[in-house]
Amino acid sequence: MRAGTLVVAAPLLRFDDSAVDALRTLTTSALPGIVAFDGARYTVIPGSQVLRIALPRYILDDPALARVWDEASADALATRLRERTVADLVAALDRPARQPEPSVDSRATTIEVAAVMSAARVPLVAVVDGTEYVGVITVNALVEALIA
């Protein structure tokens, strides 16, 4: 089976898009992450990582410290997000320095897709046909195809 048969339509974000729009895209797409393109390479931002730019470093280092935040402080998170972009989301990702680009050609096999997804540690990969973005393959769709 080829990647093109597993692809689903998904929005493609630009690095200068607002972080709030990216979060809205995440919630409305029902996908496990979002895909951004900087003009040269694709980046997948897993849903579990999108709030990293809003949380203070000390809470990321020790999640137990989140208990000291009151609701007014939590409201400040929304304000911080309004001032950020997709580029800020990408910069805040906790990922290996030599992470491969999470994209595959539409003719890639399921094993190639699995290898890229696993190496990049992301729940979805971008699918391109030549230079044209087609959509994504999610880990759920890939696993379903592999075990079918």
Task: Describe the structure in your own words.
With 148 residues, this protein is an alpha/beta fold. The protein has a single domain, classed as CBS-domain (Roll). Helix content is 39%, strand content 20%. The chain has 7 helices and 6 strands, in the order αβαββαααβαββα. It has a 3-stranded mixed β-sheet with strand order 1-2-3. A 3-stranded mixed β-sheet has the order 4-5-6. β2 and β3 form a beta hairpin. α6 crosses α7 (139-147). The longest helix is centred in the middle third of the chain and has 12 residues, at 71-82. The protein is elongated and about 50 Å long. It starts with a helix and ends with a helix.
Helix and strand content put the structural class at: alpha/beta
Low-confidence stretches: none
Radius of gyration: 16 Å
What can be said about the biggest beta sheet?
Answer: 3 strands, mixed
Say how many strands there are.
6
Overall, the morphology is elongated
Fill in the keyword field for this structure.
single chain, 148 residues, alpha/beta, CBS-domain, 3-stranded mixed beta sheet, 7 helices, 20% strand
Summary, kept brief:
With 148 residues, the protein is of the alpha/beta class. It is built from seven helices and six strands. Strand 4, helix 6 and strand 5 form a beta-alpha-beta unit.
